[in-house]
Amino acid sequence: MTAPSSPQVNAADSGVPNTTYFTHDWTDADDLTTDVVMAVAEMTGKDETEIECVHDRLNPESLNTLFSQTETERYTPDSLIMFSLEGCSITVYSSGLVVVQGE
User: Fold this and answer.
1) Which of 64, 70, 76, 85 is least enclosed by beta carbons within 10 angstroms?
2) Cβ atoms within 10 A of the Cβ of 49, count?
């Protein structure tokens, strides 16, 4: 699985050990699920193809459109969703901030 561009991951600047974060633009056509898998792969040192199937955790299409203002008619500024993948805790905020915390 290869995305056209990788998410802007800021591991060194996060200030929290084993934590990386990036910002997803809900108005952009980039796939959030792919960006999350790439960040988890970077965090765990695995290839993207070795990461467990996201479909086993949640519906990727739902994740991609959950906070999208173009897909929903409501704006939810204080919302978030949390899930785990490959031992990492992922938090996606409606603002677009995505935090990936390793073990």
Assistant:
1) 70
2) 9
Rounded Cα distance between 27 and 1, Å, is 22
| 67 token code pair | 């906070």
Tokens of 3: 């995305």
Task: Give the Cα separation of 58 and 60 in Å (integer).
Answer: 6
- 46, 35 contact by CB (below 8 A): no
Residue whose tokens read 């704006």: 75
Tokens of 84: 């785990």
**DSSP bridge pairs for 83:** 90
pLDDT digits (tens, 9 = 90+) for 54-102: 888 889 888 888 877 665 566 667 789 999 999 999 999 988 899 999 8
40 and 84 in contact (C-beta within 8 Å)?
no
Q: Angle at the Cα of 37 (from 31 to 42), degrees rounded to 5?
A: 130
